Every structure is written in C-alpha cells, then in structure tokens.
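Reading a protein record of the kind used here takes only a little practice. The integers have meaning only within a learned vocabulary of local backbone shapes. With that in mind, consider the following protein and its fold in token form:
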Amino acid sequence: MRDDPMRTQRSVRQFGCLAAISLILVGSAAASEPYLLSVSDKLTVKVVEWNAGQSTFEDLTALGGEYVIGADGQASFPFVGATPSAGKSTTELAATLGSELQQVLGLTVAPNVTIEIATYGPVYVSGDVSTPGAYPFAPGLTVIKALTLAGGERRAASATSRPERELLTNSGALDLLVDEHMRLQVRLARLDAELAGAQTVTLPPELAKVEGTQPLVAAEQSILLARQRQMTAQTTSLDEEVALLNREIDTFEQKRTAMEQQLEQAREQLNKINELSDNGLALASRVTALQTSVADLQSRLLDLDTSSLQAKQDIGTAERERAELGDARISDLSLERQTVDGQIAALALKIGNQQALLQEAAVYSGTAIAGNAALPSYAYSIVRDGAEVAADMSTAVHAGDVIVARLTLPQGTTTAPDEATAAPTN
C-alpha cells in the first residue's frame, strides 16, 4: 500500500512543530531591551516633591494623571506642553519632565517624576491567521505570542489538523506562563534581598543558570536600590530632626544656667534693699523694681523648662516615627512577598496543566516521518515605521507593529479539498 502524500506532509510538519516546542520548554525568555514608548501608549504620571521643612513627600496631583502619546509622537503635559515621547523609555521621559517642571515652576530641586505605562498601543496581526485584527501589546511580546493572540496560523486544508493547532496554541500559552513564572521568581528574590537588608538581588542557583534573567535582575536591582535610597532618606531626615532637637535642649540648658545665676544675684540684691528699706535708707520704688526683675527671671526660667520639655517630646515622636517606618516597611515587604509566593504557586499549577494539554496534543498529532515530501511553510514579517522586515517566531514585537503571516505552498502542490467536500471514491 502506498503512503498517503498529504499524511506524509502532516507528519513531517508535526515533527518540526514538536521540535520547536521542545526548545520552548527547555529554553527561557530572551533578553529584551528597555521598552521605547510608541504612539497610542497611555501613560500614568505621578509627580512627588520632597518637603524638607516638614520632612514629608508631597504628591503634586495637579501635575499627574493619564496622558496618551498622539499620532505625532508627542504627549501634552501640564505646564510643559507638547513633549516628544515616542522612541523614549519611561525613565528618559520622566527625567525630561522633571527637568522641564523644575525650570517652569522655578523649583530649587527637580521633582521626582514616575511614569508607568497604563495601556500599551495595540499590535496588528494580519495575513494567514485565524483571527486577524488588533490585539493589546505586552512587554516581551514576540511573533509566536502575537500569533497565539490571533488564534494561530490559518492553515490550508492540506496542511492543517486540529492537534497541530492545539500544539501551537498550547505552546504559546505555555511560553507566556513560563515567562511570567520566571519574572515572579526574580521579583521574589528581590523581596528576599530587601527583607534581609542586602544590597544586591541574588537568584537561586537553579534560576541563575537560566538565560534571559539578566535584564529582569537588573530591573529588580534598580527597584531595590531606589527603595533603599527612599528609606535611607526618610530615616536620615528623622535622625537630623532628633539631632537638631538635642542641640536645642543643650542651648536651653546653657541659658537656664546663666539665668539661674542672674536670679540668684537679683535675690541677693533684693534682700539687701529690703533691709535698707526697713531702716528707711532705700526707696520703695527700688524694692519694687528688684521684685519685678526677680519675677521676670523666674517666668523666663519656666518658659525655658517648657521649651525643653516640648523638644524632648518632639524627640520621642521622631524616634517613634523612625521605628514605625521600619516596621511598616517590613510589614509591606512581607505582605508583598506572601502575595508573590501565592502567584508563583498558582502559576506552577497552570504550567503543569498546560504541559499536560501540550503532551496530549502531541500524542494525537503523531510524530512519525513517512517520507521527505515538501511541506507548506509560513513566512513572517513585521511592518514598522512604514518598512517591512523579515521576522521569525522569536522576533520581538513593538507596540504599533503589524505582524504578517503568509502561507507558502510547496511548488507543484495544490490545496487538498476538505473531507466534507472531497470526491467520493468508487
């Protein structure tokens, strides 16, 4: 009995698909460059200014909010106006806004500007895919992930089978889960470093060997150092306040000592004048003046004691705030770590389920190679800034890109009819 050519083609293609999937399972996410803002990205801007006088951070809500990068690549911000934003990272744009606000508002120190991407501009998938259209962008998006969003490649009847599509869909979903699982593990390592008071993020040995973790570690390291700087600034401010209050108390004590000496001298003079007044040798007005001086000195001593007591109370308040600051930080970190730990556990279960579905699809698709017949193939390209460039499954996708998938049939082959419309055999 002769081999069925179409079954041969499917078997070869299925083998290639399984080989690619095995690489996804043992590989890791490729290192990605910092995301550059694009048209239609929606930004969340927060502006904070440090008030040294009150030792607090002031949220300048009037300058924050959500802004969208327009078709001209610019976003319009309060007081600054239209600002070129497309092609910049969030860090670069935040630095630009901080500098501009410092100049416009006449601030001594540039305010701290934080920019987060609330919504990315969409990507567009077209060509031979199941569901062409616009889909939301996410960092780390690649061609294969975009195809997964669009339901996978649309195969001709001669080059398609349900298990194959399930393989593609499940492998893309598994890739996303594995990538998120790795990101959460790196975040967990950063939280552990913060709780331990370490200066660097250290990955577990099994994760440190995985390629593609370096950019994730660098990002979490930046967060670690930034949060430590913020904590140090707040603690230093409270320490300086305590030191200033202690100097005030020392000054009060010095004034009190000098004033007690003056009071003692005034009392001695008053006693002498009283004796002279009793003998008719001193005026009553002189006695009254000395009595007033003694009373005034006593009142001023009470004021010094009150001021010293208030300074001591302020020291207690500042020390209590410093202790509460550390306790609140540990509490927040512990809660965040508990949340991330739960997310990792949930993702591990999802990955296990997805791997089971992937294995099931592989079993039903079959992997035997019956011959060397030519197979239908797909070519991919990305249209970006008006230019079309060739791409493959692992090519990184940017917001606003158009991903095109094209099915190419081998020369000399034709698309076979569906089973429902195939000619009956005699």
Observations:
- The chain has a mean pLDDT of 77.
